Every structure is written in C-alpha cells, then in structure tokens.
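re: ur question from the group chat, yeah i did fold both. here u go
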Amino acid sequence: MRRLPVNLILGATLVALVAGMALVSLVWTPHPHALMNIGARFAPASDVHWLGTDQLGRDVVSQLMVGARNSMAVAFIAVLIGASLGVTLGLLASALGGWIEDFVMRIADIGFAFPTLLFAIMLTAVFGPSLNIAIAAIAFINIPVFARVARASANQIWTRDFVMAARAAGQSRFAISRDHILPNIAAPVIVQMTIEFAVAILAEAALSYLGLGAQPPSPSWGRMLSEAQTLMYLAPQLAIYPGLCIVVAVLGFSLLGDGLRDVTDPRLVRNRA
C-alpha cells in the first residue's frame, strides 16, 4: 500500500482545521461576533475571552471564526464559478479547435490582463463594495486559469485510442467531451481548484484589507488586519491572529494541492516508486 505524501496529510489537516472553524461558527461562537463592550476593550486573553478583545471590545476568537466562514465561502463560490465557466470554455475550445480555439484562448489572455484588485475597484465603483463584488472579481480571474488547464488536458485526451473509437462510433464532439474528456481531466482540474482556493483566500483578504470585501459588522481577516495596523505598538496581537489564520489557510490549500498533484500524476508516482 502506497504511503500518502506528507504534504497531502499536512495540507489536509490544516484545511480541516480552518474548515472546521468556519463550520462551527455557523452554529456557535464564544460570543456574538459583533457585540461591542467598550469597557472591555483590549482585554487580555482569559477564560472569558480566549484571545482577548479588540479596540471595540469584540471577542477576537468569535471574529476569527466568522472571518474564516466568510473567507471559505468566498473562496469556494468564486473558485466553483470560475472552474465551471473556465472548464466549459476549455472543453469547447479543445473540441472545436481551429479559429474557435484560438479565439477562446485569446479571450483568456485578455482575462489574465485584468488584475483582481483593478477589476474589483471597477465593480465597486458601479455597485459598491460587498462580498458579492469580491466573489465576482475572484471568479473572473479564475476563468482563464481553468480554461487553459482544461484545454491543455483535453487536447492530450483527444489523441487517445478510446476517444478515436468513440469518434468512429459516430459520437459527436460534445458527447465525447461530456462522456470521455471531462472525466479524464477531472484530476488536474481538482488539483488546480485546490491551489486556486489558496489564491482566492489571499485575494479575499487583500480586497477586504482595502475595504472592497466584507463590510462591517461582518468580520474578515483582511479587514481585521487593516483595523489593527494603527494599533501595532498598542496591541500587536490583533494583527498577528488574523495574519496567522491567513497563513494557515493558504499554506494548507497549497500543500493539499501539491499533495493531490503528487498522488494523481502518474509520472510523479513512478518517480517515487
């Protein structure tokens, strides 16, 4: 029995820790995350407030837990939307080929030219800042990523014997893409999704730091960092805690993606053997 890579185990553990914190926050937090108690501002860690309170007397643990929920929700929805649209475009480009493939790939290149922050600022100017804007911006930059991954993987599958047999049997290109190509490119797409989760969490934190993500009173790790930057000498822990959460989440998804790639890539499996 082949042993699982260490990076896969460590990544899955860190992701489970963050995901568990986010799920628990749906039903329980030590204190209401938006409850302010000015009399208890900057309280140290204690049995009542496990990591103390912030400048408004809000419980830091509760803020971190709900912030994890927001970050995970934004990452999951944005990456899912980006993957769905990107994989569809990639499969379409690979199946039809010719000028259609070139056109789709050039559109993907244009998508790479739009930084997340710039696109979010454009959307914010029209619709105002919110989590939905952050999701739209992050989803948008994921579309060309998955389009390229799906198209490159699908092009390799189109040359396989079983695909040639399906074409000889009279199956349409769309039916072959659905029944044969998509299942066989699922592994690289899932690995890419895992890696993009890390990128999405980092992007959400950056957008919230700039005030373009979750709006008060909804907590966000990025906004907690933004609010703590003027308090570094007075209460540095208020920046350390959300910063550590971002590091753990990004590191966990990155290691998980690398581990999944090691497990699913036959060339890497043979090299380890």
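okk and heres the other one u asked abt
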Amino acid sequence: MRYNWSVEEISQLFSLPFNDLLFQAQQVHRAHFDANSVQLSTLLSIKTGGCPEDCKYCPQSVHYDTPVEDQAMLLKNEVLAAAKEAKARGATRFCMGAAWRSPKGKDFEHVLELVQTVKDLNMEACATLGMLSEEQADRLREAGLDYYNHNLDTSPDLYEDIISTRDYQDRLDTLKHVRSSGMNVCCGGIVGMGESRKQRSDLVAQLARMEPHPESVPINMLVKIEGTPFEEEEALDNFEFIRTIAVARITMPQSYVRLSAGRAEMSDEMQALCFLAGANSVFYGEKLLTAANNDEDHDMKLFNRLDIRAESSSTPSTRLIA
C-alpha cells in the first residue's frame, strides 16, 4: 500500500486518456472489492442551520441568506424512527450530521445517546459534528461510533479562499484525534468550487498520503445553493468528476469511495461511469442534510439495471483483499 503519492504523480493519472484511466481504476477496484456491489449509507441532519462557520458552499452558515431554516436538535424518538426506516430500505450505515463548529455540553451528551440508539439497531453509526477534541473522540468511540466524517474539502492552497473561520490544521487535528481513538475515518472533499486540476490532484494527494487511508472517501460535487457565494459557480465537467473518482480509487485501493452530494443532478449514465471508475458507496435517501438526493426507488431501479447488489455489511470481511 502506498502513502507517498506526489501531486505530480496524481496529476499524471488525471492526464491519462479517459479509457485508460478507467481501465486502470477498474483493475484496482476488482483486486480489492466486489465490482458489482455498493454500500448504502443514509445521512440525517440532527441539528440544522445556525452554523458560525463561513464555508462558502454551505447553506447552513449564519453568514449567508439561504432557504435553509434553523431547526433545533432532533429528539431520540425522531432519530430512531429515521434510522429504522433507513435500515428497512437497505442502508447498513446511519450517519448523523449537526451544523456546529464543534459539539458542546448537553448537545454532545445527547449525541452519545443517539449513537447508542443507532447501534441498538445493529447498524453502523457515523457522525459529522465539526471539530473534536481528543477526549470527545474517545467518548464517541466508547459510545460505539464506528465512523467519524470530517472532510478536508479542498487543497491546502485553495482552502483559505473557501473558509476563513478555521484553518487546514484544525481539520487535520480532528482527524488525528479520530484515528487515535480507534474510530474509522470518513474523509473526502468537494470538487467544482473553481479549483484547478492541480488543486484537485493536491486534494487527492492529501487523502492518499494519510496512513492508513480513510476507510471511506466521500467525493462531493458542489451543489449550488441560492444565497451562498457559490450560487453562480460554473459547473465542473462531468468527465472531470468521473476522473476524480478513478484517481481516488487508484490511490486509495481499499477505501470505500462514495458518491455523495450532487448525485441528484447526475444522469444514470454518469453514475454508471462512476461505478465503473471505482465508486462503491452512495448516500441513500431523499435528502443529504439540506440538499436533495435521489429517491430510494430510483436508486434501486438503477442498481437493478446495472446488476449491482447492495452490500449487507460494509465490514472489511466483504472485501476481496489478497
């Protein structure tokens, strides 16, 4: 397993002829995973809006006038009902997101209770709550949390143009605490925020140089939300997005590469190419925090057309690792 990818090497992968890149990515994918299987995760916003951060892509920020309305933290019975429904529809992992800079006080204690609620359903539990201290990461792990999501978002040199209320090292520190606690790391980024191909290469390099690699790597296409600074951002070319999936697969062979935000705007044909490029996980459900997502029936019809099976478990035992 390699952890020393350079930006130049990754840029060279991006520059391969499209067919050659996908062929290489598919070979890597088949060496480590069932090529016709996809892991399903469901994401629920347990506390919406009112976030003090100024991430330019996010409609939950207090800095922007967007259609998202602030909502108080969900009660245990509301989260339990959503998790049960997700499991009934085939999801194996239930992810909870809260619009915080970092969790505090009674809110954090409530999250610990919600983690146990999900675990009692025999589902994998994931959370994205902002920055964590070392102690918070340890307590989440003790509560049974399997995965913690904390994306790098973009390359280090573009980061300060996207977010000013925290720096890149803040994100790396949280990821260090998560890894040290023994939890699995879910970490990826967003493409289509005006970055260059070299900056996309740099984002992948940051992820691929983590040792070990993140167990889950969500690749998000920017969703342009009214009221955010990226509302009028030029759309990223679809083939460039597919290339990003393929490069992530090649450089992080044993990671689950997840199609995340932006999938509602993707055609079935584009998603099929993403699966060919090595994507093997999706967020499953009609909503991703505040953004629309494909409905479950449509997803299942697409999986049936492609003869793709939903995984019954996303534990490492399902992988085809030599």
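fwiw on the second one: The CA atoms of residues 49 and 60 lie 4 Å apart. Confidence is low (pLDDT under 50) at residues 314-322. idk if thats what u expected
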